[in-house]
Amino acid sequence: MDVTQTTADGLKREFRVVVPAADLETRLSDRRSRLKDQVRINGFRPGKVPVAHLRKLYGRAVMAEAIEELVRETNAKIVTDNGFKLAMDPQVKMPEDKTELEGVVEGKADLSYTVSLEVVPAIELADFKGITLERLVAEVADDEVREATKRLADQNRPFAPKAEDAAAETGDRLVVSFVGRIDGEAFEGGTAEDVPLQLGSGTFIPGFEDQLVGAKAGETRTVTVTFPETYMAANLAGKTAAFEVTVKSVEAPGEVALDDDFAKKLGLESLAKLEEAIRERMKADYAAQSRQKLKRQLLDRLDALHKFDPPPTLVEEEFKSVWETVVSDLKAQNRSFADEGTDEEKAKEEYRGIADRRVRLGLVLAEIGEKNAIKVTDEEVSRAIVERARQYPGREQEVWDFYRKTPAAVASVRAPLFEEKVVDYILELATVTERTVPKDELFKDDETAADAA
Description:
Elements: E1 2-9, E2 12-19, H1 21-36, H2 51-82, E3 91-93, H3 98-105, E4 111-118, E5 132-137, H4 142-155, E6 159-161, E7 173-182, E8 185-198, E9 220-226, E10 240-253, H5 260-265, H6 271-305, H7 312-332, H8 344-371, H9 378-390, H10 396-405, H11 407-429, E11 431-436, H12 439-442
Parallel strand pairs: 5-11
Antiparallel strand pairs: 1-2, 2-4, 3-4, 6-10, 7-8, 7-10, 9-10
Helix pairs in contact: 1-2, 4-6, 7-8, 8-11, 9-10, 9-11, 10-11
GO cellular component, one term: cytoplasm
Protein name: Trigger factor
Pfam families: FKBP_C, Trigger_C, Trigger_N
């Protein structure tokens, strides 16, 4: 067998492979010999089927299998011998001439084909000990805990029916039924029965709740509102609808005492324990936000320290995925690129840059993990899947079975676990200082958030 490299263009490689007909015949004979002991053909004892008869019956199929096996082995050898890391599966191009291909299958001609590869570039990793980062942290203030406790109390506030002729006020809870129409025609999703609605909650379309202030139980009102331009249902965005609303009941909110009894209703032994639980949850939220900002800083530094041309195919695949999401989101919001202050070409250029960054960072993190033997164990993956399954009470087994049967889904669990382990490894080497900031600064949106890997 002769393997010759014919192209080396950037990260693209192409090889020409020639396999003599004699080599193919040797492989074919070996497969026929094994087949002779396996097949059962009427008129012949097991293992006694003449080879010539097998060739007549199965020759073409066996040759196709032999060629397929040989191509796999050859591709693997090319990768191993050259020390390549592949960015994509090898692309094999067989002879297009039917006569030539027929000669190969019949064992009368040499097999000549090309295999195209796209490889991952060699990545020279930076010295992570030279990276300096700042971890932003914020303390959970007592007044924030009190506010959160009060919000929880408001959410659990009891409601009692108002007097039969009492008018609804902001804060009251109504039970309503309605039919919505646009240009006199009822539309899908615009009709509902016995829906609870607290006036002033902002749950419904802007203006809807305001027009029900003063309504009484048993009253029917026409509420006219305009759907926001960014409404999730594109067919309704920006349109004006008239809702015929019937108020079934009006209930007034009661008072909630923030005391031990209230805490016990929520399953905690005292108000102090409730506030402690709320504080711990808020601390976890703050810590997660601090970690996210620190990780974003780190990715920015890795991006700046590792500049190379990533495999074009990987970048194109990532761009397509990102672009589909962008276009889908705009369509769902009934918005255009002009509404975003740009045009399609500029947006594509921006998101190609994001795709390039994501691919490069992904390759850098993978290289760090490989060179430092960072692994994610099956046990760690299983624990993560269990946590996901717990998010669907009553359907845990269904979720578990889905992951067990879907390798791609398991990979989607493993990948972020691996990334976090690599990030932790780098953070151990980097110099990380800590700065206490107000909550607002900790949770301030970063313009580069969408660019993070």
